[in-house]
């Protein structure tokens, strides 16, 4: 008999390119580890921060509450 076991899907970690098996035992997929996940989140936050920093003025659209 030929046991046709389904090949595990492997993705490359977007941060360090480490092959990550796409399964329940890879809670941080597509990242290889929590560290890489946090790095990715950090990059997003950084981009957001840059965008926010470009507009230095806060949207002050409200009644004058002095
Ligand atoms: Zn990684």
UniProtKB/TrEMBL annotation:
InterPro entries: DNA_gyrase_inhibitor_YacG, Znf_NHR/GATA. The gene is yacG. Pfam families: YacG. Belongs to the DNA gyrase inhibitor YacG family. One of its GO terms (molecular function) is DNA topoisomerase type II (double strand cut, ATP-hydrolyzing) inhibitor activity. Interacts with GyrB. Binds 1 zinc ion. One of its GO terms (biological process) is regulation of DNA-templated transcription. Inhibits all the catalytic activities of DNA gyrase by preventing its interaction with DNA. Acts by binding directly to the C-terminal domain of GyrB, which probably disrupts DNA binding by the gyrase. The keyword Zinc applies. PANTHER family: DNA GYRASE INHIBITOR YACG (PTHR36150). Zn(2+) binds at residues 13, 16, 32, 36. This is DNA gyrase inhibitor YacG. Its cofactor is Zn(2+). Keywords: Metal-binding, Zinc. It comes from the Bacteria. The keyword Cytoplasm does not apply.
């Amino acid at each position: 008999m030929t046991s046709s076991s389904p090949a595990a899907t492997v993705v490359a970690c977007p941060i360090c390119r480490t092959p990550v098996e796409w399964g329940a035992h890879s809670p941080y997929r597509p990242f290889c580890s929590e560290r890489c996940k946090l790095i990715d989140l950090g990059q997003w936050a950084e981009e957001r921060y840059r965008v926010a920093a470009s507009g230095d003025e806060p949207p002050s659209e409200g009644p004058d509450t002095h």
